[in-house]
Structure formats: C-alpha cells, structure tokens
C-alpha cells in the first residue's frame, strides 16, 4: 500500500482489529548516504556509523545505522502499512514507550515494520490516541532491529 493508495477505515472498524497481527510496510533499503545524512543533521558522527573502513575492523564488520535513524524511519514505513482513519483531520506523533534497539542494523540492509494495533482511546472529545506495537525487522534476520510502543494522536472532524 503506497501513501497515495492508503486504505481508509472507520474508527469503529479499526477498533475491531485491536490485538490482531497488523500490516507490514514495504521493504526499505537503508543506505550509507541515509546514515551519513542523519549523522550530519544530528551531529552523531561516531565512526561506527560513518567510517566504513574503520567500522569494518569491528565485530559489526561494517557501518551500522543509528538506532534513532531507524526510529525516525517509522513514519515513512507507516505510510505503506497503516490505514487512514476516516474523519481524521490532523495527526501528531504523541510519543514512544519501551523503545528497544534489539539488533544492530548493518548498512545496505532492507527493513520493514509491522504495526500491531494495541489500543485506541479518546482522552478528549474528538481526539483519539492510537497505540501500536511496532517491530522493525531486517530482511533475512531472525531478530528485529527495533521494537517500540508508539502513540499517535488524531483529531477527528466530527
């Protein structure tokens, strides 16, 4: 599902999928250019991320992506997996709980995220919190690179 063709679903229909295995995103290639750009923007230029020659001499065997880069990519990954809730007019990132960087993410790996709907609450009228259990997998590896509980706020138009 690309962002242009994201499924639209009613809030009542979406609630029915709480606890079920969620959708997975499309695969995304994490390149050295992405890692270098993230390092430049954040100032996190540790050699393990940006120096392929030096990183090759470590037990990682090459550069690895920043954990926070992987976390930041969830928005992009979400747009190919999570439906749009009908009647929402705006959304925000509300925050994360229990973020864990389980396995290093080697450069030039393909990742995808699975979004399991954990909860939908309405703390204020016309404002809902949608909570996902997210797992980011690396293609052809057993363990995920990241797991987290992610909360997204959505304002409803009615």
UniProtKB/TrEMBL annotation:
Q: Which SUPFAM superfamilies match?
A: Thioesterase/thiol ester dehydrase-isomerase
Domain of life here? Bacteria
**Cited Gene3D superfamilies:** Hotdog Thioesterase (3.10.129.10)
Q: Which residues form the MaoC-like domain?
A: 23-119
InterPro entries, alphabetized: HotDog_dom_sf, MaoC-like_dom, NodN-like
Q: Which named protein is this?
A: MaoC family dehydratase
Q: Which organism is it from?
A: Noviherbaspirillum sedimenti
């Amino acid at each position: 599902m690309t962002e242009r063709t994201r499924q639209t679903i009613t809030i009542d229909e979406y609630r029915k999928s709480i606890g079920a295995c969620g959708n997975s995103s499309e695969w995304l290639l994490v390149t050295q250019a992405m890692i270098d750009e993230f390092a430049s923007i954040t100032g996190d230029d540790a050699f393990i991320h940006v120096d392929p020659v030096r990183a090759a001499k470590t037990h990682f065997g090459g550069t690895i992506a920043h954990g926070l880069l992987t976390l930041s990519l969830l928005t992009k990954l979400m747009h190919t997996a999570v439906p749009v809730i009908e009647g929402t007019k705006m959304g925000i990132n509300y925050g994360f709980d229990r973020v864990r960087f389980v396995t290093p993410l080697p450069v030039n790996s393909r990742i995808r995220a699975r979004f399991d709907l954990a909860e939908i609450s309405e703390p204020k009228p016309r404002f809902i919190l949608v909570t996902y259990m997210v797992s980011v997998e690396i293609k052809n590896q057993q363990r995920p690179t990241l797991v987290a509980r992610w909360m997204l706020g959505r304002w409803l138009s009615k």
